[in-house]
Design goal:
α10 packs antiparallel against α14. The N and C termini lie far apart (56 Å). β8 and β9 form a beta hairpin. About 4% of the residues have low confidence. Strands 1-8-9-7-6 form a five-stranded mixed sheet. The protein has a five-stranded mixed sheet with strand order 19-18-20-15-21. A four-stranded mixed sheet has the order 3-12-11-10. The chain is of the alpha+beta class and 610 residues long. The protein has 19 helices and 24 strands.
């Protein structure tokens, strides 16, 4: 890794050698500064765009949004591994060089950077900072801050930032306000990812241990909001900065960040959080349980019209929500066992009990989108991508795989019978009413759950009842948020609740989710522990595809591998969002294709009394 503060001078070019200098000059002649960048083609908005399509430039400022979260926190630094952090914190604090539009699969527009330029092959990318860019304390955002942020996050920051940094060959200051990233691998997405890392203030951390910072060491960033009050495990409050540097400067933020106050209240369980909403202590609540939405939203604030119910659509993939099996463990390293769990999990009965069968099931990681695997055998480019790995992947990744479907009855006889056969293939039989191996050792496993989630607990209770018909008695361990993070960070679980959102533009984050290199990373996101050359190859292909056709085919092939690998028992998907909120909280009529996603609430909302 080279980090340099040199400028574009003759001496700089000579340090590359004559041939490299000539090549660089030729590339520079082709590259032009742009206002934005897209993964394929050009961004949808022109250089002179005034605001995002889903923002209201006439929205008033003022008011507050108060939401709830189950759990707690002991850190306000979302950029490191240490501590338990509110999951949405990194979206509420910290700005990057570029910002992502929620109305395009993968397009970025200038935020801290006023322009971006890149080589035709995207082997390097260069950003020029806006002269107006300031941190919340009024100090300028400099190239030095940018380079320090990338180096620090890439080496001792949260694992989510390290994969990108490993693919950077050099970071160089090329002018008073410009910085260039040169990459060491072929990966067209890197030019975009380079614009999406948070920029922190270098001087704040002089003499401080960034990696092990304490609760009171809140990172100084350039965001429109700053944390102004908090109480561990009780609340976090953000206040809008009226002197935010981007006002009237950055088209991307025009019409965003209208609320004066953003407050998150923390509760021990879902019941307490909902009760707080019913009496108005919370004024916006995102509901995931359709039965509760239909039957319990009849309290006074709703009946009187002070709170309203909004149903919002989106066009993003379902992602995966369910219960992940840790293939690092002896219990779940056999696909037959994982398949048996899929058949024993009586989704149709569970869904009817929990939601009245109102929620459709997730059928694959990219379901509800054009990137989803297609029914039946693989064909065309998808087949071409999978065939070289045919001997090492599940056969039905190619021939076609679909989740088991029960008859909806509680006993699920067919599913249990199939599960028994699969367990026998894995070397287990029922002995004296207990599922055991050839040595008579009972088959069992532990299900780790975070305390406070009554819905997950109810689902697992029904699952364990089904498992009892197989002679399997799992243990269930309930822990608080801090313990849950400690254990999942080191993959100390057999099965646990799992949620992984995916987008219409999957990229390098796929390595973090299920790439082989991330399997042993502490605090990583490869929860299932999958190590598959085929999966790695599909990720490589989607990142290096030069056509939309190959990109889609590679993603569909990846979806087949993940789904047929039986790593997660899927539950239901949310193809709409249900949000009940104060009638004075408003959002634009135009919904972005990503819908209710980080960057929409609270960013695009505003408060105005009716």
């Amino acid at each position: 890794m080279t980090i340099s503060y040199l400028t574009k001078s003759g001496a700089h070019l000579r340090s590359w050698g004559l041939a490299a200098g000539v090549s660089l000059l030729a590339t520079l002649a082709q590259a032009q500064p742009q206002h934005g960048i897209a993964m394929y083609g050009d961004p949808a908005l022109p250089p002179d765009f005034a605001h995002l399509p889903y923002a209201n430039p006439d929205a008033p400022t003022g008011g507050a949004i108060i939401t709830s979260s189950v759990g707690g926190f002991d850190s306000l630094n979302p950029f490191i591994t240490k501590g338990t952090v509110f999951w949405q914190l990194r979206f509420l604090m910290g700005e990057s060089l570029m910002a992502r539009s929620l109305d395009e699969p993968f397009s970025l527009y200038g935020l801290l950077a006023e322009t971006i330029e890149t080589a035709e092959d995207r082997s390097w990318v260069e950003f020029t900072l806006r002269p107006e860019a300031r941190f919340s304390d009024g100090s300028p955002v400099t190239v030095e801050d940018v380079i320090w942020s990338y180096e620090t996050l890439g080496t001792i920051g949260h694992p989510r930032y390290r994969g990108f940094y490993a693919k950077v060959d050099s970071i160089e200051q090329t002018g008073d306000r410009s910085v260039r990233f040169t990459f060491n691998v072929e990966d067209r997405e890197l030019a975009l990812l380079a614009g999406l890392r948070p920029i922190l203030q270098k001087s704040q951390w002089d003499g401080l241990d960034f990696e092990n910072s304490e609760l009171d060491e809140i990172p100084i960033v350039s965001s429109p909001y700053a944390i102004t009050s908090y109480e561990p495990n009780r609340f976090i409050e953000f206040t809008r900065n009226p002197d935010y540097w981007g006002n009237d400067v950055v088209p991307f933020v025009n019409g965003l960040h209208n609320l004066d106050t953003i407050r998150i209240e923390f509760f021990g369980d879902e019941v307490a959080a909902f009760e707080a909403f019913k009496v108005g202590e919370i004024n916006s609540n995102r509901e995931f349980n359709v039965v509760r939405w239909e039957q319990q939203y009849n309290f006074d604030l709703i009946e009187q019209g002070d709170f309203v119910k909004s149903v919002l659509s989106h066009s993003r993939p379902s992602g995966m929500t369910g219960f992940v099996m840790n293939t690092r463990t002896d219990q779940f390293d056999d696909i037959n066992v994982r398949d048996a769990m899929m058949h024993a999990f009586n989704f149709e009965f569970i869904n009817d009990t929990i939601t009245g069968s109102a929620q459709p099931r997730i059928t694959s990681y990219f379901s509800n989108s054009p990137l989803a695997m297609q029914d039946g055998p693989a064909t065309g480019r998808v087949l071409e991508f999978l065939e070289p790995f045919a001997d090492d992947i599940p056969a039905d990744a190619i021939s076609g795989y679909a989740l088991p479907v029960s008859d909806g009855s509680e006993r699920n006889r067919a599913g249990i019978a199939t599960a028994l056969g699969l367990m026998e293939q894995a070397g287990y039989t029922i002995q004296d009413g207990v599922m055991a191996d050839a040595n008579g050792t009972p088959f069992t496993f532990d299900i780790l759950l975070e305390s406070g989630s009554s819905e997950n607990t109810a689902i697992i209770d029904m699952f364990t009842e089904s498992l009892s018909r197989l002679g399997i008695t799992p243990s269930i361990t309930m822990v608080d948020g801090a313990q849950y993070k400690e254990r999942t960070d080191v993959y100390d679980f057999d099965m646990t609740y799992y949620r992984r959102g995916v987008s219409l533009s999957p990229g390098n984050e796929q390595y973090l989710y299920w790439g082989s290199e991330a399997v042993d990373t502490t605090g990583g996101r490869n929860m299932m522990g999958v190590q598959s050359p085929a999966i790695d190859a599909m990720i490589d292909t989607l990142l290096t595809s030069e056509s939309q056709t190959d990109f889609v085919a590679a993603t569909q092939a990846l979806d087949r591998l993940l789904t047929s690998g039986r790593y997660v028992i899927p539950i239901y998907q949310w193809n709409i969002s249900r949000i009940a909120h104060d009638k004075n909280l408003h959002f634009p009529d135009t919904m972005p294709i990503f819908g209710d996603w980080p960057g929409w609430q609270p960013d695009a909302w505003w408060y105005a009394e009716n």
